[in-house]
Protein 1
Amino acid sequence: MPAHAPAPDPSPAAPRPLRVALLGCGVVGTQVARVLLEHPDDLAARAGAPLELVGIAVRDTTTPRDGVPPELLTDDAASLVTRADLVVEVMGGIEPARTLILSAIEHGASVVTANKALLAEQGPVLFEAADAAGVDLSFEAAVAGAIPIVRPVRESLAGDHVTRVLGIVNGTTNYVLDEMATQGLGLDKAVQQAQELGYAEADPTADVDGFDAAAKAAILASLAFHTRVSIDQVAREGIRSITTDDVEWARRSGYVLKLLAIAERTAEGVAARVHPALVPTDHPLAAVRGAFNAVFVEAEAAGPLMFYGQGAGGRPTSSAVLGDLVSAARDRLVGGKGPRESAYASLPVLAADAAVTRYQVRLEVADRTGVLAQVAGVLADHGVSIDTVRQSEALTASFEAEPASEPAAEAEPEETEPLARLVITTHAAREASLAATVAALDGLDPVRQITSVLRVEGV
Ligand code: NDP
Ligand code: HSE
């Protein structure tokens, strides 16, 4: 080394802070801000540079936010995203979140989002923009709250073939069904409690009607099968029609009702669905209580894997957001980029009625000789094979007597028709065959009511 060469600097200049913009300061955003403000040294050490919170976009800057300095708040999100290295989007909804994320990417920022609704509807546009700009778009918090599931499916299983993903991915509905089963609460009261606990979406319809779980199923299916699956391609049924009677009946017959998300790869393509299902009480999913989530992943080489943890709530979700933020900061400091979207397989996405599963049909029929044979005949005609039939306690319902040709002098005493309640469990059948069977049963003379039709999973 020449004598005049400068000696190597033993203490290289500290990296400049990375500017973080936070979009949203609600249930999740408040917790993200709190950690950024309370643990700067830990985060700097883990990321490799200080993470400086430069602004927080909200709608109403006058609302006090627990532990958040008001001077950080702004209602000018559009300008905030242009002066950040890292943008965290936890405002939710499609717009203005979509435009703000695209603007952030265009200005060279990496983005962390928890917005599953946006990803399941507009994912490809956002991923293409991020890939073109060479920045990260990370979304661990978008699926199953605190549970690391995006990274395992996207990265840890990148060398395997995932065949099925099945789980409870919505904390609100799991909490609601649990409260209905254990506390006897009605659906509306349980939803209100879930809102108060910060589990529900801004509009809890998204949870109750299965949109939130369908968005997560679309994201998981896209990652697992390297195929773009949008929320519109997920067969969806929520828990709105579930009654305390359904929950109680499930309990008595050895099941627990759960809202499940299922994504499968079959010989024909990829199928994704969300619906309530009866799960046997000894199945691991039956033990998932409150707002917890659990996801099973089946892969050809790895075999079955299970992921479990808190699926909703501000603090648990902030853990996943901050994990992504530290990773994005590290990538930025080394000039690297996280995984790109992988949709190379482009498998066909199958229609909802192609799904094959078992069903439990509860119905009330006239308690007459030969009715069971008639009902069984309808199932056989539609190629639906019966596993078990149970006749439960007989009920009694009043029915109108045939009107007499002459007006009766005195009112006839009301006659009653003996009814029987049948519970039919089928072997696996196609959704389309079951739907046709139920329609035919509904038109059958002795059938008084189809009380419920529920899928059975995990047997
Ligand atoms: P909140 O409704 O509690 O918070 C939303 C925040 O975004 C509020 O601070 C709101 O401002 C702000 N905001 C909304 N729209 C705008 C706008 N147009 N301009 C500026 N600010 C806006 O939602 P959450 O924190 O519960 O959820 C945020 C995101 O995280 C959603 O995408 C959700 O799906 C996702 N998520 C939520 C989880 C949870 O358990 N809550 C779990 C996992 C993901 P202001 O306060 O002024 O109204
Ligand atoms: N509303 C969502 C849920 C938040 O209840 O699961 C977590 O994504």
Protein 2
Amino acid sequence: MPKNQPVKIYNTTKGIIVENEAKFYQISDFSWDSFINQPDLFSFLSEQIKTAPIVAGLDESTLLAPIVSQEIWASGVTYLRSKTARMEESKDAGGGDFYDRVYDADRPEIFFKATAARTVGHLENIRIRKDSKWNVPEPELTLFVNNQNQIAGYTIGNDVSSRDIEGENPLYLPQAKSYDKSAAIGPCIAVFKEPISKEVFISVEILRGEKTVFSGGTKLSQMKRELPELVEFLTRECSFPQGCFLMTGTGTVPPDDFTMISGDIVKISIESIGTLINTVE
Ligand code: DO4
Ligand code: MG
């Protein structure tokens, strides 16, 4: 296997499919929850594909979000760009100082984002709230943390957010962040032998019809915190018998005069994991 290339796990309507070096394997006899929580997942996958039947390929229309019993949590204000954007949006509410302080504090911001039922996968629709006028995607490297509190894999996340609600009062954060179809993850869980490189680029493009109305990106190395540090805080007083997902914060925020509208297509790519595409309902 070439150095630190991931093995990818897909949740599909036809069961679990594993991709390795452009070959696809059908996995049977495992539930999703038990499969992704196997200890030393990379070695386990390498063993599984020695005997699993090869299938023709991956039909994208069969993809499901890579989540069954897991919760999605999220960390915030982990990049400078997120801190400055939130200080600006909440300055009239006196919230600016909170964001400044959490950026420098030992304890990171961590919040509950979504249940599996509120989450969509690749090519499914995300939603913006009807009572909000300013909505953005947040492209985020998302960790799969297994039931032993280890980072076992990575996926792509969209922490869809209502900036006017969050900016009006920091106590409205749960309403700005957590509602039906406010979270997208996928298309796979990518499992690496070594931790993911900090040089990976996380990019986002928003299409309105044929036109790109916003594009941007950041390197993971721009994040102020370490990934294990975020996991350590999340798992201090919460256990996750089936593992969980942790969105790690956004480093890309569109300009303040930008809002998503119905019909927009959001494409988030992370090198070596893939691209997550969702349309705004
Ligand atoms: O505190 C607001 C949310 C921060 C967030 O979601 C992010 O930085 O990604
Ligand atoms: Mg976020």
